[in-house]
Amino acid sequence: MRYISAICSAVIWGSGQCLNKQKLKGLMFFVFQVVLAGIELCTGSLAVLTGQAERTFRNAGFFTKGIWGLFSLGTIPRESSKTLVYDHSIMLMLAGILAVVVLLIFALFWIWNIVDAYRGRKLLEAGKHISSVQYFQSLWSSAFEYIIITPGMLLVAFISIVPIIFAILVAFTNYNANFIPPRRLVEWTGVETFLNIVKIGNWGSTFVQIFIWTVCWAFLATFSAYIFGFIQALLTRSKLVKWPKLWRSIFILPWAVPGIVSMMVFRSMLNQEGAFNQILLNAGLITQAIPFLSDPFWARLSLVLVNMWLGFPYFMALISGVLITIPQEQYEAAQIDGANFLQQFRVITLPTILASTSPQLLMSVTFNFNNFNMIYFLTGGGPPNPNFQMAGSTDILISWIFKLTLDQRMYNYASALSILIFVIVASASTWNLLRTRAFKEE
């Protein structure tokens, strides 16, 4: 009898619950099935079944058309402006992803409906009393937090997960400037894009060199700001410095000013005829302008120095907070033992600060790995590099993807590179999480 209830609910949702004398619960599951069928019928399938529309997948309901469109990406291109019936591959892909996500949500309710019918019959056979009201009261008290966060989870699924899935799937198509729907339909190409990145000379060498520079940039940008912030925190905490609060307030200004504004100002000052070159020329320190933004070496050095200026106040504030928590008794005991300033710093200050700030330090490396703003607003990825495939000398992976997407419309390559970046960043973040004290304690 248990299996009969489960089979009945698998065919007609809630019917197994009705057999178990839980009519209210059965009605709830049946409403879900009616909504599922209603969406399919009201969005096209009913018109096809009654002969009011042509019997094709293109005219079918939301779920049927969505799954067909996801697999086929369309069959009829728009050959001219007079073409009335045509497909748009990207719209079909998005609709298909959305249809699959909604179907998965309904599938969870379907499985819940079957399992509940089976368990309800099992309890009846054991001689226990069950009722829909009691079930809902128990569900509310035992799963209250899950019920409350469910709307937010559904919103995340449609706003965040669907675009992520779409971005991943684009990497397995030929969606680029040569295949822009609806004029030319997009096709599935498998892992061809990833193979081209590895095999084709310019693409492979460009990816490797930009990846190396991205890693170097992430570490240089992070540790230069960290070390400079460390020094400033020590100086402003020193007893030899007067008015430390005033100095801390001044040093926090680069962090308080919007970063984009500072980058644009620095870009103007670093030009061939900018303020820095004019000051150096007038002082007689140089005989010709330094190509801060037009030479690969100077452009990369400028990026690191400007990022250090914008980033050190954060680490200064962070490290200053940690310095306050170090007990002064430790320093007094070290002084009694004859330890000098460097020994106190090496044994007490440095280990304490590194232990407290290492998670933020690693997360800053991850952030700078994708620090698009600094590259875009300061150098624009330049200067040009003839050896790179559609990239400049200071481009990092994320800015290269931006150029491939908006400038070159090579969406499949941009998507493939985004997946590679995600794998790298996710691996680093996971490694960082696994090493945190909070995760180990859990």
Task: Describe the structure using short key phrases.
0% strand; mainly alpha; flat; 442 residues; 20 helices
3D architecture notes:
The chain has 442 residues and is mainly α. Helix 9 runs antiparallel to helix 10, helix 9 runs parallel beside helix 14 (296-325) and helix 9 (201-237) packs antiparallel against helix 16. It is built from 20 helices and no strands.
Strand and helix map with partners:
Layout: H1 2-11, H2 15-19, H3 23-49, H4 62-72, H5 89-125, H6 132-142, H7 144-170, H8 192-199, H9 201-237, H10 244-251, H11 253-256, H12 259-269, H13 275-282, H14 296-325, H15 328-336, H16 341-369, H17 372-379, H18 397-407, H19 411-435, H20 437-441
Helix pairs in contact: 1-5, 3-5, 4-5, 5-7, 7-19, 8-9, 9-10, 9-14, 9-16, 12-17, 14-16, 16-19, 18-19
- Mean pLDDT score: 88
User: In one word, what is the shape?
Assistant: flat
Quaternary status: single chain
Structural class: mainly alpha
Kindly report how far apart the N and C termini lie. 43 Å
Q: Quick summary of this structure?
A:
With 442 residues, the protein is mainly alpha-helical. The chain is built from 20 helices and no strands. It is flat and about 90 Å long.
